[in-house]
Amino acid sequence: MPEPLQLRSILGHRRWWLLAGAALILLSLAAGVTLLALSGWFITASALAGIGLIVGLDIFTPGAGIRLAAVVRTVSRYLERLVTHEATFRLLSDFRSRVFSRLLQLDEFQLRGLRRGDTLNRLTADVNTLDHLFLGVLGPTSAALVLTASVAVLLGLFIDPWLGLAAALVLLINPIVTELARQRGLTASRRLVESIPVLRREAGDSLEGLADLIAFDSVEQQRHHWSGLSDRAIGLQERLARLDAISQGLVTMVGFLAVWLALVIGITLFESGAINGPLLGLVVLAMLGLGEAWQPLPAAWRRLEQCRGAQHRVRAMTDTEPRLPVPDRPLPPQGDRIRIEQLSFRYAPDRPWIFTDFDLDIASGERIALVGPSGCGKTTLAQLIMRQIDPVGGRILLENRDLKTLDPGAYRRHVGLLSQQPMLFRDTVAENLRLARPEASDDELGRALAMAGLEDFMDGLADGLDTWIDEAGGNVSGGEARRLALARLILTDSPIVILDEPTTGLDADTALALSATVDQWLGQRTTVMITHDPDTLPRFDRLIQLN
To answer: What kind and span of H or E run contains 139?
Structure first.
């Protein structure tokens, strides 16, 4: 079982960025409180000096302090945004990379079980939800606690213990309000976490299947279904928004209560001569400034449940035990002879056997054609040879070495694949080809395209290799897509090649032209070809009928 994907370890990896971000949040809030406090002192002192109650007021020192606090607040806020967002982006990048790495360890059957829309939602929306963990919860909460505790200590030590107690009231009550808001919103937050992915998945499925919905006159029915899901999600969001407003109002009331207490205590101290008027103004406005630190926290902690739900959804995907174990000391692949011994395979214990005691010896440089009806195991055998899945029984050898002992990444670079439905990514022609060999030069790409018979196609492109390919190759024909995939295969220069239905879906002339091109490139490579129609294949040495 893989080690659970722990947020704690990812946070620890970026701890210095997080600490710097939290320190800047604290500095920004402290500068804001200092600015208010000094402004309160200065305004009160100026008013008293104006009516003659203070003689010889020094306006330069507090004025300089106010300007310094304002500059520090502005600069620290800018740096805080810069550092906290950089830290968050790095955290999300780390987390997404680890999630994707876990998925790469799964075999073909496990990957096939992942719903495309739901998996995409977990990799994007669910992971992005976790940005709130630091930006909204960890950093602001730690800064608010430290700032409030510091103000309480300073007021208690240097002015009066009762004033420190008034500030401590904020430190005592606001966390309770925050936790109550979180508890109150648990059920709605969990339902929202569950409903949003369903809503996105249904929207994606509806768009992808729009042609079928129109054909069966089911558009209106699907629209009502999707609208119901949308209304349910909006209702939950409205309910949580009301809860956030109420909890923020309570936090504001606690802040004003602390200001009122500070004012009552301060007036008592002023009447007794313990403090002067300007100091009373400083205390009251400093207490008012604490409210800024606590305002966003109830809503932030209420959203923490959404972070947990997102993490659980991602963990449910990544904690799947991979069925393709990697040896402790993997061996490099060598040679191109493949031998299959006593192979048995089925996809699950309750599924029928596809192979039982199957033997096959493919000599070095030999080309074989696998022929048989749909479902007989042709593509499954290709996946077993590529080690996208492992056999239940028996073994597959490359030059007398079991595939399970080889380095998986190196072995997959050792075997080239032209799939039945080649994937073209929404990127340039060059980047689609460099998927096979990232370091390939433009000249090497051009030679591969020429070998694949795409000279005329490339001559017709205004931007050449920089021409953009639409999603799923929407702006190229089926034959062009297959030849682009062939050019990508040519760049791998693999000694073993698997061709899965290389001419399916092509017209007769295009199929024969592609077969001729492939035949020339294959040369003496060990080749496994899968087809329903062997007449359109390149030359092969042996035909194997699978039942």
So the answer is: helix 139-158
Look up residue 180 and give its two tokens: 């109550």
Residue 380 phi, psi (nearest 5): -60, -40
Q: CB–CB of 126/310 below 8 Å?
A: yes
Residue 63 CA, distance from chain mean position:
48
The helix/strand/coil state of 289 is helix
**Residue 521: per-residue pLDDT:** 83
Amino acid at residue number 529: M
C-alpha to C-alpha distance for 322 and 82, rounded to whole angstroms: 39
CA distance 42 to 518: 85
Is the four-CA dihedral 355, 359, 364, 368 of positive or negative sign? Answer: negative
**Residues ≥6 apart with Cβ < 8 Å to 412:** 386, 387
Per-residue model confidence (pLDDT) at position 10: 66
393: CB partners within 8 A, 6+ apart: 342, 343, 344, 345
Which residue positions in the chain have pLDDT lower than 70?
A: 1-10, 53, 55-57, 113-118, 120-121, 123, 125, 472, 505-506
Number of Cβ within 10 Å of residue 479's Cβ equals: 20
Residue from 29, 141, 27, 16 nearest 86 by CA:
16
Burial (CB < 10 A; 0-12, 13-18, 19+), residue 464, is: middle
- What is the per-residue pLDDT across 120-165, written as a single tens digit (0 to 9) for each? 667 676 777 777 777 778 888 889 999 999 999 999 999 999 999 9
Q: What letters, b where the CB count within 10 A reaches 16 and e where it falls short, cover 221-247? A: ebeeeeeebeeebeebeebbeebbeeb
Which residues are paired to 498 by β-bridges?
417, 528
- Residue count of the chain, please give it: 547
Question: In terms of C-beta density within 10 A (0-12 exposed, 13-18 middle, 19 or more buried), how is residue 540 classed?
Answer: buried
Three-class SS state of 358: strand
Q: Write down the CATH superfamily of domain 7-318.
A: ABC transporter type 1, transmembrane domain (1.20.1560.10)
216 contact partners, CB below 8 Å, separation of at least 6 = none
pLDDT at position 5, please? 54
pTM of the complete model: 0.69
Strand partners, 361: 339
pLDDT for 198-213, tens place per residue? 887 787 778 778 888 8
- At residue 199, the pLDDT reads 82
The pLDDT value given to residue 397: 94
Interacting residues of 208 by C-beta distance below 8 A, sequence separation 6+:
none
Residue 403 pLDDT: 92
Domain 338-545 in CATH 1.10.10.10? The answer is no
Q: Where are the chain's structural domains?
A: 7-318, 338-545
Cβ count near 257 (within 10 Å)? 15
